[in-house]
């Protein structure tokens, strides 16, 4: 292994790969990305891939700004690498089933207008042509967001990696980080299973394992591993075309649907989210592509709602349930920026925001690191924002669970 690097990225998920690409594109060719398994083997591989420009009627501006960069990034990657980056701008629907949620959609529309996000309010009859296989008989209104869609995780990461390598970044898999040298109160080197890399700058993009990586440097990273599950139906007949079927969310039922490989992905939040701290001294994501056993009882209500919304699912079997660990923070927003330790940066906690923000966050941090000034003002994401309570695992866990329940 090389003895030195200008920067070391720890974590080979979509966030780490986005950072690798954007640092390389900015001219930092002597950058190394380390992944203890294969790329995406932590949480990225099992993500449902939704890209949402609006989290809700009170959604933060930074979310829309970061997600809005994805189409431009996809076009850039395609032009530079020739790879399909997996971005599918099929549009997204939000359905309202009650007067209260119609008002929510109106508030969402006002907020979208403030943020410059295209959104059209529609009645059920004007929505049927977009999703003819859904039952909209109880739908009172819908919000149509043409800029939303989904990303195919493997394709997106492959394109980012191809671009990063073309810009001179080194990608090293099967290499475990064992320690971070902070002699003199700043980052000096990264110790790995394959030797030592001297470096003045480390970016912790280790997802649900970001807390364990931060602890190596004596820095608290308040990321909580929490289980999330979604189901995948058998192939429908006729099969759904994922490149022509909008994504769909029903917020008041905590339900989402999207087409994938002729099937339907069905998911949503649960009222009793489950933390996934490993037993003993084990670290999150220590095993590659690890899934928890499906919680069929907890998933059953979502599957029933999906069948009511899409009647053909009542005649279709559930092929599998993906039940994996995602990384969450006490307030649901990612951690992005400098830590209190000189030379250590954090990019973690994307459980609520998924694939859609990874591109924008990679660009934001790469610009900040290489130029000293970020293009976007994202103080709401600074890693130190929680103060002293973040060092208490019980506090961070309870706050993260409370955020998911809302």
The strand count comes to 21
Task: Please give the radius of gyration in angstroms.
Answer: 21 Å
- Report, as a whole number of angstroms, the end-to-end distance: 46 Å
Helix content: 25-40%
The overall pLDDT average reads 96
Features:
alpha+beta, 9-stranded mixed beta sheet, 21 strands, globular, FAD-dep_OxRdtase, FAD/NAD-bd_sf, FAD dependent oxidoreductase domain-containing protein
Protein described:
The chain has 406 residues and is an alpha+beta fold. It has helices at 14-25, 61-67, 70-81, 99-115, 153-166, 210-216, 296-309, 358-371, 393-405; strands at residues 7-10, 31-35, 50-51, 87-88, 92-96, 120-122, 141-145, 149-151, 170-173, 177-181, 189-192, 195-198, 202-204, 224-233, 247-250, 255-260, 263-267, 274-275, 318-328, 335-338, 344-348. Strands 5, 6, 7, 14, 15, 16, 17, 18 and 19 form a 9-stranded mixed beta sheet that branches. A 6-stranded mixed beta sheet has the order 9-2-1-13-21-20, with helices on both faces. Strand 20 (335-338) and strand 21 form a beta hairpin.
Question: Could you provide a short overview of the structure?
Answer:
The protein has 406 residues and is of the alpha+beta class. Helix content is 27%, strand content 24%. The strands form 4 sheets. Strands 5, 6, 7, 14, 15, 16, 17, 18 and 19 form a 9-stranded mixed sheet that branches. A 6-stranded mixed sheet has the order 9-2-1-13-21-20, with helices on both faces. A 3-stranded antiparallel sheet has the order 3-8-4.
Ordered list of secondary-structure elements with their pairings:
Elements: E1 7-10, H1 14-25, E2 31-35, E3 50-51, H2 61-67, H3 70-81, E4 87-88, E5 92-96, H4 99-115, E6 120-122, E7 141-145, E8 149-151, H5 153-166, E9 170-173, E10 177-181, E11 189-192, E12 195-198, E13 202-204, H6 210-216, E14 224-233, E15 247-250, E16 255-260, E17 263-267, E18 274-275, H7 296-309, E19 318-328, E20 335-338, E21 344-348, H8 358-371, H9 393-405
Parallel strand pairs: 1-2, 1-13, 2-9, 5-15, 13-21
Antiparallel strand pairs: 3-8, 4-8, 5-7, 6-7, 10-11, 11-12, 14-17, 14-18, 14-19, 15-16, 16-17, 20-21
């Amino acid at each position: 292994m090389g003895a030195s690097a200008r920067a070391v990225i720890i974590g080979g998920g979509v966030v780490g790969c986005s950072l690798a690409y954007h640092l390389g594109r900015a001219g930092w060719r002597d950058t190394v990305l380390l992944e203890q398994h294969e790329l995406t083997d932590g949480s990225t591989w099992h993500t449902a891939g939704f890209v949402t420009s609006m989290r809700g009627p009170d959604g933060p501006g930074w979310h829309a700004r970061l997600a809005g960069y994805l189409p431009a990034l996809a076009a850039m990657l395609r032009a530079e690498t020739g790879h399909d980056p997996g971005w599918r701008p099929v549009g997204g629907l939000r359905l309202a089933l009650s007067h209260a949620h119609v008002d929510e959609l109106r508030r969402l529309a006002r907020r979208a207008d403030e943020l410059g996000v295209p959104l059209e309010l529609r009645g059920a009859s004007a929505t049927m042509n977009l999703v003819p296989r859904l039952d909209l008989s109880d739908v009172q209104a819908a919000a149509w967001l043409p800029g939303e869609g989904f990303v195919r995780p493997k394709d997106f990461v492959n394109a980012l990696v191809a671009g990063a390598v073309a810009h001179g970044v080194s990608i090293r898999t099967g290499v475990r980080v064992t320690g971070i040298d902070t002699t003199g109160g700043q980052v000096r080197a990264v110790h790995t299973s394959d030797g030592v890399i001297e470096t003045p700058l480390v970016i912790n993009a280790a997802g649900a394992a970001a807390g364990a990586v931060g602890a190596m440097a004596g820095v608290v990273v308040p990321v909580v591993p929490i289980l999330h599950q979604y189901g995948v139906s058998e192939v429908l007949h006729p099969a759904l075309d994922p490149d022509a079927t909008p994504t769909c969310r029903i917020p008041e039922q905590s339900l989402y649907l999207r087409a994938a490989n002729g099937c339907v992905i069905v998911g949503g939040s649960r009222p009793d989210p489950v933390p996934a701290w490993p037993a003993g001294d084990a670290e999150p994501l220590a095993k590659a592509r690890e899934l928890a056993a499906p919680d069929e009882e907890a998933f059953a209500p979502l599957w029933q709602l999906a069948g009511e919304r899409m009647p053909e699912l009542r005649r279709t079997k559930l092929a599998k349930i993906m039940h994996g660990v995602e990384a969450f923070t006490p307030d649901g927003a990612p951690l992005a920026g400098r830590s209190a330790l000189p030379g250590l940066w954090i990019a973690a906690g994307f459980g609520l925001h998924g694939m859609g923000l990874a591109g924008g966050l990679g660009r934001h941090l790469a610009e900040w690191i290489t130029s000293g000034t970020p293009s976007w003002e994202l103080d709401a994401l600074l890693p130190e924002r929680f103060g002293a309570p973040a060092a208490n695992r019980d506090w961070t866990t309870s706050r993260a669970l409370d955020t998911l329940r809302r």
